[in-house]
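Q: Predict the bound structure with S-adenosyl-L-homocysteine.
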Amino acid sequence: MDQNKFNERIQDLVQEAEQKPVRRVKKEKPQLKESIYSLRIDELQDWLKENGEKPFRAGQIYEWLYDKRVKTFDEMSNLSKSLREKLKENFALTTLSTIIKQESKDGTIKFLFQLQDGYSIETVLMRHDYGNSVCVTTQVGCRIGCTFCASTLGGLKRHLLAGEIVEQVVKVQKELDEAGERVSHIVIMGIGEPFDNYDAMMNFLKVINNDKGLNIGARHITVSTSGIVPKIYKFADEELQINFAVSLHAPNQEARQKLMPIARAYKLDELLEAVRYYTKKTGRRVSFEYGLMSGENDSVEVAEELADLIKGIKCHVNLIPINYVPERDYVRTSRSSIFAFEKTLKKRGINVTIRREQGADIAAACGQLRAQERQDEIK
Ligand code: SAH
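A: Predicted complex:
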């Protein structure tokens, strides 16, 4: 992509978010470049052809980017000098810089990265017995407005480009390289609504899933949406093997729209219809996320109502003890109420788990670190 087009695109993304551009523009880098990580392998092949190069070079470049994980274009030693120069002119190899890296006692690492235009985003590495998972951000801020969530404070600033999402994973992988470990799982549950930035999210998926890319298996990737119904149909029709989660948080329309304004646009019955379509089309189950908030949505009666609501849907419920966000009023449900809620669902034959908490000592919930560190961005 040429430089002017790229600058226009970044500008469009900011305007689309209908917010003022951020004040923290890095002065020494007025010329923003497209991240090379934005390109799917077929797009890279096209770019090579357009620039008088052989398309098979795309495989070599991918190997340098995703297998050898080089830090400069000059290290791509099997490419001609002139191709390396062309790459340097047109693309950036790093568009994220680390502002903060916080390590929790349990091994969770939280990163605050700065983008080329000065905005900041969060990425979290979580250690599990089954592998290392990275939670990625898809937007700077969010316009969904869930009343319990820190990511939405200050609204949406702009969408991320695919490369900015891919690079989050590459950055974390480079950290793990020192220990000889690998990123094995991805959850798209950081800041932002992935289905509100659908095309970039899909390109991200294609890059990390490609066997010449990071080669992360579809079944090791989870995407979560607040419930943008038309995109759920679109996603179902992609027929991917990716795990799919829907943030439900309430057992009826009235309660849900109080917590999640998006429910006014896409009603609960429409959402569940789309979810049923997804399970039929893909043959896969859906995971409902349910954040427990004291006195709000956590009683045994509510659990019964929830069981009635999702009866017959091929699903699993993931109960999330809500993280306290200082700007918000909600308080986490007590342990005994969490277990009572779980027991009620189990009795009704619903698959249910309680999300294990990680990184509680480092503000690892969505948007919390950015909210703490970048007061100017959340106003
Ligand atoms: N926008 C997408 C994905 C990002 S959030 C979505 O809404 O699904 C990932 C999950 O964390 C969602 O289920 C979201 O509702 C939940 N979440 C948001 N704020 C939270 C908080 N304070 N404590 C616990 N979970 C929270």
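A: Residues 162-177 form the longest helix (16 residues).
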